[in-house]
UniProtKB/TrEMBL annotation:
One of its GO terms (molecular function) is metal ion binding. Keywords: 4Fe-4S, Iron, Iron-sulfur, Metal-binding. The lineage of its organism: Archaea, Methanobacteriati, Methanobacteriota, Thermococci, Thermococcales. This is 4Fe-4S dicluster domain-containing protein. It comes from the Archaea. Residues 3-32, 33-61 form the 4Fe-4S ferredoxin-type domain. Pfam families: Fer4_21 (PF14697).
Length: 62
């Protein structure tokens, strides 16, 4: 199942935990901004589990 990872920018404080656990480098936190690269994501949801403030959700896409 392909997923899109969505961030709640009000909650995210750019700690980098999601970046650290992503096996595909599909998330970066750079220039004070959280960025997602859907073409790299394999839908493991490690990032969602790793976020200490629950800022990420995985939305299933076609
Ligand atoms: S679901 Fe997995 S591959 Fe996709 S961004 Fe999160 S940790 Fe990376
Ligand atoms: S783990 Fe959560 S708070 Fe930390 S950078 Fe990722 S989305 Fe933001």
């Amino acid at each position: 199942m392909k997923v899109k990872i969505l961030v709640d920018r009000e909650k995210c404080y750019l700690c980098g935990s999601c970046v650290a656990v992503c096996p595909k480098e599909a998330i970066i936190t750079e220039s004070e901004e959280w960025k997602f690269f859907p073409e790299r994501c394999i839908g493991c949801k490690f990032c969602v589990l790793a976020c200490p403030v629950g800022a990420l959700v995985a939305k299933e896409v076609e």
